Amino acid sequence: MNRLITALLFVLLSSNLWAAGGPAVPMDHIEPDISDQESLQRGLTLFTNYCFGCHSMKYARYERAATDLGIPSEIFEENLILGDAKIGELMTISMPEDQAKIWFGSAPPDLTLSARLRGPDWIYNYLRGFYADPKRPYGVNNVVFKDVGMPHVLADLQGVCAEPPELGVEPQVDPLSGNIIAQSGCDSYSSEGSMSRDEYDEAIYDLVNFLEYVGEPSRLESVELGRTVLIFLAFFFVFVYFLNKEYWRGIH
User: Fold this and answer.
1) Is residue 239 part of a domain?
2) 3-state class (DSSP) for residue 139
3) Does residue 185 lie in a domain region?
4) Same domain assignment for residues 249 and 210
5) pTM exceeds cut of 0.85
6) 86 and 202 part of one domain
7) Is residue 60 helix, strand or coil?
8) What is the number of other CB atoms lying within 10 angstroms of the CB of residue 132?
9) Could you tell me whether strands 130-132 and 140-142 are parallel, antiparallel, or unpaired per DSSP bridges?
10) Same domain, 163 and 252
11) Nearest CA to 200 among 186, 179, 214?
12) Residue 133 CB partners (closer than 8 Å, separation 6+)
């Protein structure tokens, strides 16, 4: 029995370390809101422009995303579908897996269920955790996933941190000046991006929010259905209560 418990603990700890990409690091927490259509639309745009070239979503369909995000099919097809794909098809990519292994060391993973596997906090901090490292093949490393084999594809937005960014830092404000003296993210950059730190954090939130939606697109329907069922049960309980009372009245 002791050996079985030890083995189970080893498996759980190993899987947690694998899911995190290495030792745990402090992380900032976010609360995804998949009911925010505007955020999801911005996140989809970022994913299409920066991620979709290498990462597929082969368990999701263009049409479902267009419907749920409130995007007319014509606009979706014209602006968010690459190549000759049709709106009813799955969100796959044309990159050959064998070639991807040669280019990146391993094929970039499908991201349909990434938020469910890693968790939104992990992805949010990972995409904010790149920094300059000339020893790495793509010139960058990551504080969340050490020695990752992925280039910093969002560098033109964020820039490249000159030093490993500190994550999970509670914002500190100077009480006299009101200026922020400490917060998560980069303190200096080896190259500048087109966004400020706050703008980039908001963009990454939108992207993670979209990934959270794709991992379970029926969640909003489930929540609404659950509320309807609970309201029905509460309403039905009144009739059952009085029926039960009337049934037992002659016996007691």
Assistant:
1) yes
2) coil
3) yes
4) no
5) no
6) yes
7) strand
8) 19
9) antiparallel
10) no
11) 186
12) 139, 140, 141
Conformation bin of residue 178: beta by default, left when phi > 0, alpha when psi is -120 to 50:
left
| H-helix or E-strand spanning residue 68 | helix 62-68
| Spatial CA neighbour of 143 closest among 183, 177, 185, 180 | 185
Q: Which helix (H) or strand (E) holds 148?
A: none
Q: What are the per-10-residue average pLDDT scores of the chain (252 residues)?
A: 49 43 78 96 96 92 94 93 89 83 81 94 97 95 93 96 92 70 85 95 97 91 81 84 79 64
Residue type, 110: D
pLDDT of 107 reads 82
SS3 call for 136: coil
Please give the single-letter amino acid code of residue 233: L
Angstrom distance (rounded) from CA 140 to CA 45: 24
Q: What angle do CA 133, 166, 156 make, to 5 degrees?
A: 55
Where residue 58 sits, what CATH number does that domain have?
1.10.760.10
Name the phi and psi angles at 61, rounded to 5. Answer: -115, 145
Nearest partner of 63 among 37, 34, 87, judged by Cα: 87
DSSP single-letter state for residue 135: T
Number of domains in the chain: 2
- Write out the residue range of the structural domain in which residue 130 sits: 19-217
Token reading at 179? 């200026």
The one-letter amino acid code at 105 reads: G
Residue 217's CB is within 10 A of a number of other CB atoms, namely 18
Residue 235 lies in a domain: yes
- The token pair at 241 is 């209560």
Residue ranges of alpha helices (H) inside 49-119 are: 62-68, 73-80, 97-104, 114-118
Token pair recorded at residue 196:
């400020």
Which among 150, 147, 129 is positioned nearest to 204, based on CA atoms?
A: 129
Report helix, strand and coil shares of the chain as percent, to nearest 5.
50, 10, 40
